[in-house]
Amino acid sequence: MQSRATLKRHAALVDDMAQARGIDLEEQIMRGKLTVSELEDAVLRCTACTSPETCAHWLGNREGAETPAFCRNSGLFRTLEAG
Predict the structure, then answer these.
(1) 3 state SS of 41
(2) 43: Cβ contacts below 8 Å, ≥ 6 apart
(3) Helix and strand tally (H, E) in the chain?
(4) CB of 74 within 8 A of CB of 64?
(5) What is the CB-side half-sphere exposure of residue 41 using CA atoms within 13 A?
(6) Which of 10-24, 27-41, 45-59, 60-74 has the weakest average pLDDT?
(7) Do residues 25 and 39 lie in contact, with contact meaning Cβ atoms separated by under 8 Å?
(8) Separation between Cα atoms, residue 41 and residue 2, nearest integer Å
(9) pTM of the model
């Protein structure tokens, strides 16, 4: 089981990455486009990432227009962006 600090860190990374892509996760949940369970799964996928520092660096510099290929949630973000 992940520590509370790890879960909070990765929840923040998921939210920050979504915001960088112009996605409001709370709004997506309210509109029924995303479930709380799917969001929890996204956070858990993020905790399995071996590059959270690289993610944080990308978020700090917005080094590209697309979600980085290494992001374990890039498919979810593409789906949410598509509507």
Answers:
(1) helix
(2) 7, 10, 11, 14
(3) 5, 0
(4) no
(5) 8
(6) 60-74
(7) yes
(8) 13
(9) 0.90
- What is the enclosing helix (H) or strand (E) of 20? helix 4-20
SS3 content of the chain, % helix, strand, coil (to 5): 65, 0, 35
Q: How far apart are CA 56 and CA 34, in angstroms?
A: 24
| Residue 71 in tokens | 């992001």
The burial of 34, by beta-carbon neighbours within 10 Å (0-12 exposed, 13-18 middle, 19 or more buried), is given as buried
Structure tokens at 51: 């590059």
Mean pLDDT over each residue of the chain, to the nearest integer: 91
Q: In the prediction, which pLDDT does 51 show? A: 86
d(CA 31, CA 56): 28
Instruction: Give yes or no for a contact between 3 and 46, defined as CB atoms under 8 angstroms apart.
Output: no
Return the structure tokens found at 37.
């369970």
